[in-house]
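Internal QA ticket QA-208
Title: Verify multi-chain structure generation after dependency bump
Assignee: T.L.

Test input:
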Amino acid sequence: MTASSLDMNKQKGISISSLLQAFACSRQYYFNKNAKWKSSDTYTICKQVSCACNIHSEEEIWDAICLIHPEISPDSRDFLSSCITAMKHAPVRPWTDTDITVKSKKVGLYGLLDKYDANTGECTLTRCCTAPKTGCWPEDAIRTAALLLCVKETCSLIKAGMYIEYIPSGVIRYYEPNPKDRRRIVQTIHQIHEIDKGAFPPKPLHPPCSRCRFVEKCNGHEPRKLSALFKK
Ligand code: SF4
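Actual output:
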């Protein structure tokens, strides 16, 4: 990482999306560290369904999505319809605030909380992927733990857990992070700091290579075997 990016992570903290990328594979963080974060079409759709599907028609939701994300493909309309259908029997969590920037100076993290309900003090995370059979995905456990640490410091609000809306599945689950989740955060932050200082991380034990766009780059970084150097 360049000196300026390293300083930025130190001053601003690490974004929760970077933390999650490093959690999935620290090498992915290494290869993607200077890229600009871009909200996905599926997230924009799920977020709008989560915030408006009780109040507005599909047409109105689509109009709002096009306003928020003008370059969205018209093909995404089918995904919106399927999300609305999925959520018919899983009423979205109520909210009074949305897109709240939360930060923990102590931990050195910042991120965006999807929804907060002042009437109950309840926090909600909106996901644009399908739900696992039970509980939440490992990365959502980390996301939830990281957000709650930031919420505690930014809003002086101590919550044991938060709701996770899996919009494409129409499933809402409650998750309480545990010490393992927080330990993983501490370990991943340490790895990020090492990479920021210039270290190239080793391959994790079980990396998600089959759906990784850095495979070529990553293989190119593998140290060459001594025998290969002496091959004629
Ligand atoms: S190819 Fe595998 S090890 Fe390499 S960055 Fe991607 S997920 Fe990580």
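Spot checks passed. Residues 25, 27-28, 203, 207-209, 212, 214-215, 218 surround iron/sulfur cluster (CB under 6 Å).
Status: verified.
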